[in-house]
Batch of 3 targets.
Target 1
Amino acid sequence: MKKNILLTIVMWTVILFKVQAQSVTVDARIDSLQILIGEQAQITLEVALDADKRAVFPIYTDTLVRNVEVLNISQPDTQYLNDRKRLLIKQEYTITSFDSALYYLPPMEVLVENKPYYSQALALKVYSIPVDTLHPDEFNGPKDIMHPDLVWEDWYATIACVLLWVPVLLLLIYLIKRIRDNKPIIRKVKVEPKLPPHVLAIQEIDRIKKEKSWLKEDPKVYYTDLTEVVRVYIGNRFGFNALEMTSGEIIDKLLEFKDKEAIKDLKFLFQTADLVKFAKYTPLMNENDSNLINAIGFINDTQLPEEENAEAQPTEITIIKKRPLRTKIILAVAIVLAITYLLISLIYIITELYSYWV
């Protein structure tokens, strides 16, 4: 009886151990058992485990074994099995070798819950390319140089550089010539000749005569214009601001320059104008003509004598300015940029032509 109980316990222990051992399986396979030197093979590592466990795959930095290089390690591919109770994880390793030999690839270690599990060992045969040294004439010699077909799209940049090269060269010559000349900037300005005060006054009086503003209902316009012309003339002729002075102040100031007889008619003009502007006085037609004649007479009597040998005033003057430093700096920078472009574009054009024809 005791033996049967002991045997039952041992059997259940073995069954539980097998179930636990089968809960994690590690499998490795290689897609090609033999390759040529430099070709690639792929190792697929598969791990099946419970979904609540975590697996750590091996990581190889350079080589799997000596002379077998690891080129790439893919990302793990995870699949759920048995109603998401189990996991199947795949990871691929791309390997190659440049030495012909038969290589033993040891089992790959996978850690599950910090416990190692191992795959089966693999083998890889690497062959070298056979060379027939007894018949060297059968080797293929070097091929002749083949020029690619001309594609215009590849030459757009070169054509643009060629087309711009000549204009930029001409611009460079012009800029160098300008900066070497260093000539000042010469500018001509047209000058209107300045008319004497009495000529300007007579022209304004002729304008007033043509307008005949005294024939209108309000004679204030006529006398305002006429007295303003006389005031401007007095200011230009005698050198004081008659526009800002009263009629009496102007007369008193003029008495310092002329006799009373010359200013008598002008005084009558100012008095009539003040009556029209401030007292609403309406003068007669002959008064208007008389005051106009008085203004012309005053201007003619007081005008400056013309000098016989007076120099003619220039109608055009020449202004000479030195070229500013800023302009010189701009010219220098433009020259440097133009030279840089010419050199770079020339090197680029020569390189493109050489690479195409050689």
Target 2
Amino acid sequence: MKKKTMYMDELPYEKFEKRGPESLTDAELLAIILRSGSKDASALKIARDILSLCSASRGLSGLYHVSERQLMTIRGIGHVNAVKIKCITELSKRISMSDASQHLRFETPQTVAEYYMEQMRHLEKEFCYVSFLNTKAELIHDLCLSIGTINASLVSIREIFKEALKVNAAYVLLLHNHPSGDASPSAEDIALTRKVYEASIFLEIPLIDHIIIGDNTYTSFKEKRLL
């Protein structure tokens, strides 16, 4: 009986049926998604091996940074399961963005940061985007300006406002991420913002904010009175 009880404790699906998904550990949730193990390891053992690839500092969110190739180094994980796990991380990001979109107000920096957080906080390179807004400060569309370290030589101010005029934007907003997780603005960030701001005033398409996304943190130039 004791052996049977121990075995039941190792069955995440049975635990889900009895207590619900909130009772499951991260490894147990992954084990249910995997459905079955291999001849050498249970689904739960494979799930724990997957989580061991995640950075201790990032925890479960470290799955965003684990590649298909890395997942397939684990015995029992083939291409299908590797793709499935990567799709789950993408789905979780989209769910988060969908929820945040209900409260998105571009004149309120916190809601903008919350909307873009899951999309940008896990990126391993520095991406800079500009959002083009209509007269009601609603999103028309986004444009990726650069990938890599942000500075004025990489970001074309001319292209920002060329696109703004093309889509009849009333306002623009800059966003970029810091892969280090620290959202503090650098000297280059401040210099670029100043150049874009000056051009925006001259062209009467105001830069309403520049938001830097870190790891669960952000800096708004508007909130910091840096604009």
Target 3
Amino acid sequence: MKQALIKLHISVFLAGFTGILGALIRLNEGLLVWYRIAITVVTLFIWLSWQNKLERISAANVWRLMGTGALIALHWVCFYGSIKLANVSIGLVCFASVGLFTALLEPLMMHKGFSWAEISLGLISLLGIYLIFHFDDRYRLGIFLGLACSLLAAVFSVLNKKYVGVAKPQSLMLYELSGGLLVLTLLMPLYLYYFPTNYIFPGLEDWGWLLALAWLCTVLAMDLMLQALQKVSAFTQNLSLNLEPVYGILMAFVLFHENRQLKSSFYIGFALIALSVVLQMIRVIRRRRV
């Protein structure tokens, strides 16, 4: 269990860079996610084929995993759309509401009772999110996309927990993201028609950021997260992901000087988010010992 929690938090730290990299890459959110997934899928396919570790699974499970991957892709599009329309801080703060969404959705999707302790911890975390950033009406669409991103993240995390035993993490990731790549490829002509852009192909600097995003923040981070999900609940995963906005916001303050919006409430909010994560970790460890 301790190793699973360590892997989970390493993956969360790596995920904290995704918002920063999204702001640095000049592509719009749709193309950015398409390139991210394409690089990841090609990398995983070559690696697993070379290692002879690509697992064959039933057609029914392939479609289930690809459907989950489509949700992941749409989640990323909403996430980067929030960042592009608002800023890194808002996109990441909205994403931290995923813990509460999971506490509400997981019992419904997994046909089990509600955990009022988890809902309470999710509300503590949500209060911390509110205190970290006072939203501006100018960023309304960015906030909406950020919350949509959180809802999608909660759904696919619960599904990941449900299908985590279907294949090993890297094969699972390949099947899922292949579904995401397929859906985005089919939607891309329509997407570019309504959201035209001057940047269709990445520049040299963009390629560097995209490779870091795909290899470190996607392949490595998702592999560690899927390994952790074999031992921890979807709620524990998503509650831990509430630390991702904190890491990302601190980086945004340093790199993009978003600290102009930083107030004392940030520290109070950070403490509440950290408290909710620590309390859940204590609950998980105690239940495992019992």
